[in-house]
Each structure stands twice: as C-alpha cells, then as structure tokens.
Amino acid sequence: MHSMSDMSNACLPQRLSEGWTCTSTAAGACATPASLDESAHWIDAPVPGTIASAHRANGVGEDALAQPYAMSDHWYRVRLQGEGKRRVRFNGLATIAEVWLDNDKLLDSDSMFVAHDVDLNLQGDATLFLCFRSIQPALAAKRGRARWRPKLAQPATLRNVRTTLLGHMPGWCPPIQPVGPWRAVELIGEARNGIERIELAPSIDRADGLLDVTVHFYHPQEPKEMHVECGDGEATAPLQWRDAHTLTGQVRVPQARLWWPHTHGAPSLYAVTLTSETLGRIALGQIGFRHIEVDRGADKTGFQLIVNGVPVFARGACWTSADIVALDASRDKLAAIFTLCRDAGLNIIRVSGITLYESDTFYELADEFGILIWQDFAFANFDYPSDEAFNRSVQLEAEQFLARTRRFASLAVLCGGSEVHQQAAMLGLPFHAYQQGLFTQLLPEVIAKHRADVAYVVNSPSAAPGDSVSMPFGTRGGITHYYGVGAYQRPFDDARRAQVRFASECLAFANVPDDVTLRSVPNAARAHEPRWKTSVPRDPGSAWDFDDVREHYLRELYRVDVARLRYEDPERYLELSRAVVADVIGAVFSEWRREGSTCAGGIVWNLLDLRPGAGWGVIDARHKPKSALHGLARVLQPIQALITDEGLDGLDVHLVNETAREIRARVELSCLRDGAVKVAGGASDVVLSPRSVQRVKSASLLGAFFDITYAYRFGPRAHDITHVLLRDQDTGAVLSEAFHFPDPSIGERRDVGLNATIGQDDKGWFLDVATTQLARWVHVVDPDYYASIDWFHLAPGVPRRVPLVARSAHVRAAPEGDVFAVNGSKGAVYRG
Predict the structure, then answer these.
(1) Helix (H) or strand (E) holding 14
(2) Contact between 116 and 93 (Cβ < 8 Å)
(3) How far apart are CA 403 and CA 196, in angstroms?
(4) Burial class (CB in 10 A: 0-12, 13-18, 19+), 351
(5) Residue 29's domain is classified under what CATH number?
(6) What is the pLDDT of residues 773-798, one digit of tens each?
(7) 3-state class of 729 per DSSP?
(8) pLDDT of residue 524
(9) In the chain, which end has fewer C-beta atoms inside a 10 angstrom radius, N or C?
(10) ω before 95 within 30° of 0 (cis)?
(11) At residue 2, does pLDDT exceed 70?
(12) CA nearest 815: which of 832, 792, 797?
C-alpha cells in the first residue's frame, strides 16, 4: 500500500514506483476493474516498465519475451492511501490506455508519447488501475487511404497509432511489443508547498547567459520571498509571484562559460537552485549556455552545425534503445554508453524516428558528456493521417517533448522523422506527392514557438530546402543516408565522388561482437548457421543481409575466399570480419574529415545492438564495444592525423586540430618493409592553428621521389606500410598515429614479436603492448576484462598502454588473457 504522507523531499514530484502488480487477459475480456477475475495471477511489476520487463523480472527468459503483447489486454494496479486532492502524472502509457480509480474511469489515452495529469480526490484507501488495451481495434479502424505502404513495419496501419515501431519491424529488432507504463508515474501535491512543474529556458545575450525560470506550485501559496541561483553563487535573482501558483524570474550570468561538444571544448554546466527561508535549497537541475545554427554553404545545399560560432564536424551513431524490453534504462547503464561514445571521439547521437523520445536522464548525460543530440520526432516511413484529431495529438506530443527538454543544451537538431520522403520517392511518387503538412507546417510552427534555438530538418534524408528536383536521398545536397560504401558495396573512392554534405545515416554492417561476448550468448552458433542469422539484420524483402555486405569488403580488401575461410577456419573468419569493418569505417571517415572535404558530418547506423549477435550496433547487446567502435576511435579524435591515398600524387597527411589552442607538433613519416625496416621517411615541424585542418603532402616530407602508394609500379613494391606519427614538439608525446597499406590484404601470418606486460596503478589494470614488427589490428581477449583501447595498429618502437575495464561490477579476479594481431602467428599471454 502506498501512503501519500511519507514521501521524502515532498515538494518535488515523487515517483510512484513501488507496490505495482500486473496481470494479462484476452483482448476485451474485462471492461472494468470490477470484472477482473479474482483468481487472476498478478505478478510484481517494475514501474516505469512494460509487461515484458515485468515478466523478465519474474524470471522469464529473453527469448520468451518476443511476444505480440500489444494484441492483448494488460492491467496494472497499486494501492493508495490518503485524504484530499492530489495529482498523478503519467509520463508515458503504451499505448491504448485507461486509468481507473477503483471502478471509476478517469482517463482514456491513445498515444504512448503524450503525458497526462489526473486529479484525484482521495478518501482513505483506493486502488489505482491502469488498463492497456489491445491495439488491434485501432489498427483495424479506417482512417483514410495511404498513398504508399512501406515494408519496414507491419502492419501498415501502424501509421494510425502513436506508438514506437520498436517490436514491429521484422528483421530489424526483436518482436518485443512495448505495452505498459514505460515512463514514470509521479505523485504531485502531497506537501502543501508541492511543486507541479519547473521550466528552465537558457539563452545567450552577447557574452552573458540568461536563464528564465518558472515554478508552478500545485496548491495556492502565500507569497514568500524566493531566489534562483545559477552556479555556485555566481548569479542570483529574485523571483516574482505571477499569481498564487506561479513564480517567474530571470537570472543573468555575466561572461557565462559556454557549453561545447566535448571534442571542441568543455561542456560547461550551471547548477540551478531555488532558495527560500521556508523551503531551504531545492535543486532544479543543470543548464548550459550555447548557440547553435546551421551553415548551408554558399550554394545553400550544405548542412554544417555551427556551435558558438565554430563549425563542428559532427560524428556519431544512431540510437535505438539501451533496454528494448523495458524502454527505460538506468543512469549507470546510460552513463557507461556515453563514456564509450566520448572516448571514441563521437560527438553526436541521432535518436531515429523508428524509436521514441528518450528520458530526461539521457539528455542530462548528453549535457554532462558534451554529446550533441539529433532528435527525430517519432515518425518513420509512413504516409501519416492528416485529420484534425491526429494533428491535435501530434501537436500536444511535440509541445510536451519540447517543454520537457527545453533546459538541455545538448539538443541540437530536431527532425520531422526518418525515411518518409525517401520511402515515397523510391516508390516513384513525385516531389509534391510526399510533402506532408505534418513535417512542413505543424512541427516547424511548434518548434518556432518552443525551441527556436534548435535546427530543424524536415526529414532524414531530405533534399536541401527549396530543392524540388533532387531526390531526397541524393548525396550532393541536403541530408543523405549514405550507403554507397557499405550496403551498396561501392569502392572507397565513392566516398569522395558522392560529395556527401551530411550523412545522417551511414556505414551499416553486421558487426561481429568480441569472442567473450559471443561465447556468453546462450544460442551462440557458427557464422552463417540459422541461429546466427536470427541476429543479422536485413532489409525487409531483400535477398541479401548485412553479413553479405561485410563479406564483400572482406573479399575486396583482404582478397580471401570468404566461403572457404568461413567453413575451414571459422575463428579466423570472425577475426578478419572484425578487422575489415574497422578498415572500411576508418577509410570513409578519413575521407570525410580531410582538408577540402565537402562533408560536415556522418552518423553511423547503429550505436547499440538490440539483441546478442552480429547486429548493426558498434556496441554489443551487453554494452561492450565492438571492433567497429574502436575503428571509429582511431580516426575521430579532436587531435588527429589522417592519411588519404591520392594515387599518382602520393599520400596526403591531414592534421586535424579541433581544440581552441595552438599546437606545435612534429609530423614524422616512415615507410617500412617487412613491418620493421625503414626504407624511406622524413619529418617536419608544424603549427596546427586552433579549429583547423592542415594538409601535408608525403612528397614534401620525403624530399625525393618514392612510389609511396605503389601507383607507378616501377618494379617490386619497396614497402608494405607507411606510418605517420604526430608528436608534441616539446614533450615528444604521441598525439596521433595513422597508417597506410599499399596492399591492404593481410597475407600470411608470421611472428611479429608481440609482447604484453600487465601493470596496475590508481586507475586500475593496464597492459603495455609492444612489437618488433608492425602488428595489424591488435586486440585483447580476456574473459573478465575488455580493452578500452583495442583494434589498433602497432608500429615497432612505439609501445601502447592499454587500460583494462572489468566486464561487470562483480569481477574480482585479476586480468588473465591474450593479445593478438591479425597478421601475427603468435599471441602474447598476460597474467595479473
């Protein structure tokens, strides 16, 4: 039973998360709570959560959770106790829902994306019921004829229902259909000074930060003096009573520290506190001050994010869900994912329209870690209804989301949805036929009113504004989903020829998890077997999957007989599969970050796997990094050396400095034969200006002709590797490395002299790894730890320190494992 008089910190909304139970019935079996069978089996239910997460908490295995839950009815209940008026806030009910107090219905809801406030008048004990009805009647209802029917989600009438497509996309994600109170249920107004809602709206006035604050109380208040404080006493201002329920005011922060994406500066945040003699100090959250705009270039067809006046190369991955079962992940779980993103050099996450609107915790962490968020509204592929009721629901959904996220500095881009324009255009519809007022009028108007400080994109992908001739998936203007290198198996030079301006999706592969994760999967199988294929994504209706895409590049780059390798040496097949995606990803992002590139950003599809196996994610379903994430980390750091192959013109070395400081460095180039013998080389001192990309030609470093790309082919190739080191001039510390292989094939394995020494310091365990010959794609295999720096090339004479991270909080054993290189015949064993 929930007593409504023992809540701590009662002036703020309190989560009603304990004491819930749930049960399931056939669709339509029980019209009211009174008609529920007294013998029904009720189980404990986590809230926020779903029916699936309740079953998981009660011991149901992951495989058994793949059910069409949305086609049945499900009931939740909790006992309340108290006297007088209170308010309950339902932040998200998936999807066709009713709220009952005892046997009185208080609410009907038909959108999982709309929050509802329900007022109660309690007279002692009462039971709060939530009923989640089958969505089948809503799917069967007539709501106009769609102009096209996509294959992505089934059935096509999902376009009529405001629910996530997660769980409804065959071949893309597990069929776990979300049903239940997936966002928090909150109690408001228990205390006499209970706060109903807080609004924080930061902005910039020249060098100063401005923060508009509004505090809404549930009960009428006696006017009392209150102040808002921004930072640790840095700025305060009095608040004024607008009426008996509402306080408003504005605080100015002189010379405010700006919030930056972590690649370009510090993500500075200010704590906001409400103070008064009667209430004491109440933490209202954190805010950041930043300015965001879009530069579309001289031709008006580009798209580059400008943060605080500085152009930003945006790179990251598309978000799905950190918990496909509950749809609500803990702060610790999300923080671990954001840590991986930051360490890999990612500075943007796109929340795709096939998913949902993420939690406040997600956005708080994005602010703290300095990671920009591109948020699609929850629309994808469909021709959506345009009737008044649908538009009214969508407007409320958008207004609530924008109000809830108004304080977050990380929200940088809002987008109408995913692949709506592309779907229609690929089915042959002309431009005017797939323009929807939802994306061209309704959402832009809501954004202009509530978040004019955020960029808006009509759809992902979409042509440049005003361009009614180009296809929405064209690469030379607007926003594109670039799969030329990748799904469409184009050669690497297509990444330059396509002249991509901004890729809001790119580079999807069936990324193989590490050996330890694969062994932990209950149904782990060899690649290509039916059990393996259940986790390999494919586009609906296609005769190929994303294993095939990865294997194409395995053949092209490494020149191996893939089928024969797979059945003769499956472990080697997996090892090279991990290596090749890192190679491809590195090549494309090196091209896009080079001096003179047309591209201002690339967002990989996807960040997280939704189930164990070789999914799109660069992070696996256990939230451990895959080789693809390490491949990104190798080319996405703020201070970065990159190499591009210019054929007869040799190699170009591109030196990136995204920081605000000047860097005095030395660039060293070495051409090695047999991975160890230097046959050519040179060096030069360079000054890297702040926020710059500088190109250095290999010929200028060598000082003489050398066929560094093996383009002229005057006799046998003289070397097998070019190694570039960028060092700090003063300390000699390595700032960045880059490698080029004139022949990218791996060749025969040999003893490269790999060795590893384990050590421990105040930060934890680490390995010092060295080699006597070049070691390609060095990686660590340890049952209890993973390497935070992994899947990298290692040159002789340039050892690498590799921190080790425990795979779980329960690990107590010392590290014990092996270090391998894909071109090495022997690994290096270590024991802690």
Answers:
(1) strand 14-15
(2) yes
(3) 14
(4) buried
(5) 2.60.120.260
(6) 999 999 999 999 999 999 999 999 99
(7) coil
(8) 62
(9) N
(10) yes
(11) no
(12) 832
Structural domain includes residue 795: yes
Residue 4: its pLDDT value, please? 35
Domain count, the chain: 5
Flag whether pLDDT at 342 surpasses 60: yes
Task: Flag whether 821 is in a domain.
Answer: yes
- Per the CB < 8 A criterion, the answer to whether 829 and 818 are in contact is yes
Q: How many angstroms separate the CA atoms of 287 and 420, rounded? A: 34
- What residues form DSSP beta bridges with 547? none
Q: Are 593 and 585 contacting, i.e. CB atoms less than 8 angstroms apart?
A: no
Residue 415 has pLDDT above 60, yes or no: yes
Whether residue 236 contacts residue 229, with contact meaning beta carbons closer than 8 Å, is answered with yes
Are 77 and 168 a contacting pair, CB within 8 Å?
no
- Reported as a pLDDT band with limits 50, 70 and 90, residue 523 is low
Q: Are 589 and 730 in a shared domain?
A: no
Q: Report the pLDDT value the prediction gives residue 468, as an integer from 0 to 100.
A: 87
Pair (319, 431) in one structural domain: yes
Cα–Cα distances (Å) from 373 to 107, 290, 317, 341, 599, in that order, read 33, 14, 10, 12, 19
Claim to verify: residue 676 and residue 660 sit in the same structural domain:
yes
C-alpha to C-alpha distance for 367 and 371, rounded to whole angstroms: 7
Question: Do residues 811 and 823 touch, judged by C-beta distance below 8 A?
Answer: no
Q: Compute and round to an integer the Cα radius of gyration of the chain.
A: 28
Question: What CA–CA distance (Å, rounded) separates 106 from 78?
Answer: 15
> What is the pLDDT, as a whole number, of residue 488?
95
Q: Under a CB-based contact definition with an 8 Å cutoff, are residues 667 and 686 in contact?
A: yes
Calpha distance 189→566 (Å, rounded): 63
Give the whole-angstrom CA distance, residue 72 versus residue 69.
6
Q: Residues 506, 559: one domain?
A: yes
- Note whether 33 and 164 are same-domain residues: yes
Alpha helices in 296-387 (DSSP H): 331-343, 360-369
What's the mean pLDDT when you consider all of the chain?
A: 95
Q: Report the CATH number that the domain containing residue 279 is assigned in CATH.
A: 2.60.40.10
125 contact partners, CB below 8 Å, separation of at least 6: 1, 79, 80, 81
Q: What is the pLDDT of residue 192?
A: 86
Task: Please check whether residue 708 lies inside any domain of the structure.
Answer: yes
Type of residue numbered 503: A
Statement to judge: residues 173 and 260 lie in one domain: no
Domain range enclosing 425: 314-328+376-402+419-445+455-626
Closest CA to 631 of 594, 585, 574: 585
- Where in 711-799 does DSSP place strands (E)? 721-728, 734-740, 755-761, 764-770, 775-781, 785-787, 792-794
Question: What is the pLDDT at residue 82?
Answer: 86
Sign, CA torsion 296/258/249/399 = positive
Same domain, residue pair 686 and 655: yes
Looking at the fold, whether 610 and 671 belong to one and the same domain comes out as no
Is the per-residue pLDDT at 122 higher than 50? Answer: yes
**Structure confidence by residue, pLDDT tens digits, 422-480:** 999 998 999 888 899 999 999 999 999 999 999 999 999 999 999 988 889 899 999 99
Token pair in block for residue 149: 């029917």
Which of 132, 156, 188 represents a domain boundary (last residue)?
Answer: 188
Q: Calculate ∠ Cα 481-483-489, nearest 5°.
A: 170
Task: Give the containing element (helix H, strand E) for 577.
Answer: helix 570-593
Domain harbouring 599, CATH code: 3.20.20.80
Q: How far apart are CA 780 and CA 789, in angstroms?
A: 9
- Residue listed under structure tokens 């009426």: 243
- Residue pair 284/327 in contact (Cβ under 8 Å)? The answer is no
Kindly state the average pLDDT of the residues 799-811: 96
Q: Given the structure tokens 């996450």, which residue do they identify?
A: 349
Does the pLDDT value for residue 10 go beyond 80? no
413: which 2 tokens?
A: 């881009």
**Strand order across the 455-457 sheet:** 455-457, 411-415, 372-376, 348-351, 314-319, 601-604, 503-506, 480-482
Q: Per the domain annotation, does 305 fall within a domain? A: no
Segment 307-333 mean pLDDT: 97
